[in-house]
Design brief:
Strand order of the largest sheet: 4-3-2-1-5-6-7-8-9-10
Number of strands: 10
Distance between the termini: 66 Å
Order of helices and strands: HEEEEEEEEEEHHH
Radius of gyration: 20 Å
Largest sheet: 10 strands, antiparallel
Helix content: 10-25%
Shape: elongated
Length: 191
């Protein structure tokens, strides 16, 4: 009976997508020259006080040497179910890896930085085929959140009413973008 459990456990571990050594997960990076390289990634610092969106550790297989990539050398990467792209954060005057939270007509990118005191969130909303994007430098101090969101989503009056009335707020950006994309896909937006 113990050998059956051992055999089942041995076969299930590789299916989880995690590497045995050092919490690496299978994924890929897209370099600035558009080369895609598959391998193992460790995308966050395991220190509980700080998430690192400034570098990723990559190796082609479990026995390979670790390479470190920064947002300046990589356009994007995928690890597990999470996808990240390089975006510039003007407040910090440098590039970071933003996670793609929602992708559609409007894409929602999020950056979480944790320091010893608290979490600080940054967000970018980008409509397809438009140059302008809505950028929040610090979500926890969003002074004109409602006004800016209602202007960005002005072609969806019912959604703007939910934002105006406080049904949607800073903590529900994912819901706002998801609802807007559903309206866009169903052609319910005002022209």
């Amino acid at each position: 009976r113990l050998s059956v459990i051992t055999v089942v456990f041995t076969f299930l571990i590789p299916l989880t997508g995690k590497s045995q050594a050092g919490n690496y997960e299978y994924g890929f990076i897209v370099k600035n020259n558009n080369d895609t390289v598959h391998g193992l990634l460790k995308n966050r610092n395991l220190n509980p006080y700080f998430y690192s969106y400034t570098e990723i550790k990559f190796k082609t297989d479990e026995k390979a040497n670790v390479e470190i990539f920064t947002p300046d050398s990589v356009k994007a990467y995928t690890v597990g179910d999470s996808r990240f792209v390089t975006k510039y954060l003007s407040k910090k005057k440098r590039n970071f890896f933003y996670e793609i939270i929602v992708e559609g007509y409007v894409t929602f990118y999020e950056l979480k930085l944790r320091n010893f005191q608290n979490d600080v969130f940054f967000a970018i909303l980008k409509k397809q085929n438009e140059e302008n994007e809505l950028s929040f430098e610090e979500i926890n101090v969003l002074y004109p959140f409602k006004k800016r969101m209602m202007e960005f989503f002005k072609d969806a009056p019912a959604l703007c009413n939910k934002i105006r009335n406080g049904i949607y707020n800073q903590s529900t950006i994912k819901k706002i973008v998801t609802e807007y994309n559903s309206l866009y896909n169903a052609s319910f937006l005002e022209k």
